[in-house]
Amino acid sequence: AQKVTQAQTEISVVEKEDVTLDCVYETRDTTYYLFWYKQPPSGELVFLIRRNSFDEQNEISGRYSWNFQKSTSSFNFTITASQVVDSAVYFCALSGNTGNQFYFGTGTSLTVIP
Amino acid sequence: GAGVSQSPSNKVTEKGKDVELRCDPISGHTALYWYRQSLGQGLEFLIYFQGNSAPDKSGLPSDRFSAERTGGSVSTLTIQRTQQEDSAVYLCASSLYGSQAPGEQYFGPGTRLTVT
After folding, report:
1. What torsion do the CA atoms of A60, A63, A69, A70 make, to the nearest 10 degrees?
2. pLDDT tens digits for B39-76?
3. CA-nearest residue of chain B to A92?
4. How many beta-carbon pairs below 8 A join chains A and B?
5. Pairing state of beta strands B10-13 and A108-113?
6. Whole-number Cα distances in Å, A4 to A58, A107, B6, B41, B105
7. I need a surface site. Which of A32, A35, A101, B70 has the fewest CB within 10 A?
8. What is the pLDDT of residue B103?
9. Helices H, strands E: what count in chain B?
10. What confidence tier does B98 reach under pLDDT thresholds 50, 70, 90?
11. 3-class secondary structure, A71
12. CA separation for the pair B108, B92 (Å, rounded)
């Protein structure tokens, strides 16, 4: 089965705290891709990152970092020194190598309190 | 450049009526996806178009749902005999699919459908 689980439904943090959003996936494919998207209150989803299954290097982009671990089928997302503008719903997604279907998690709603 | 556009932004319809939702993808993007997002839920895949290939319709929830993509560009999602459970935000996304690897998707603002 292809599935993405985001167990954290809602998270609230105080500004400047670090926060990690969890993502666990299931797939039968040996080649697959993982994504994170941000959906701010305005509604449009915005792409954050894509990772393929052969690249387990962690990635850092400014205050954002991603930890991909195939051994635990997880692709977690950490925001360092959170800001109010980070408040949004964050979705983790999985796609097989054909790109036909994307499987999205149910999202984690992050609220950063000033 | 212009992003993905969708119309209408909001649609209120009576149960049993047919509705058409439109998506204009980013020019040059060969892959186009439709999703449904219900309140508090993730995105539910509906259908996928890739170039001139036959679409992947495996996510359509019933035969009341259909979609087409004309000329490899604009796409229309049609829901016949709408039901209240069809109420949701319908999102369209396009992607530059230049290889065997799925690329990042660019999402439109969505159409909020309310069936009364």
Report:
1. -70
2. 777 889 999 998 878 888 888 999 999 999 988 789 99
3. B42
4. 67
5. unpaired
6. 19, 10, 27, 13, 17
7. B70
8. 75
9. 0, 10
10. very low
11. helix
12. 6
Confirm if A65 and A59 have CB atoms less than 8 A apart: yes
Residue B88's pLDDT is 96
Structure tokens at A60: 């850092």
**Inter-chain residue contact B42 with A91, CB threshold 8 Å:** yes
Amino acid residing at A1: A
Mean pLDDT of A65-84: 96
Contact status, residue A34 vs residue B104, Cβ threshold 8 Å:
no
- Give me the residue from A43, A98, A104 closest to B43, CB to CB: A104
Q: CA A67, CA A59: separation in Å to the nearest integer?
A: 7
List for chain A the helix, strand, coil content (%; round to 5): 5, 55, 40
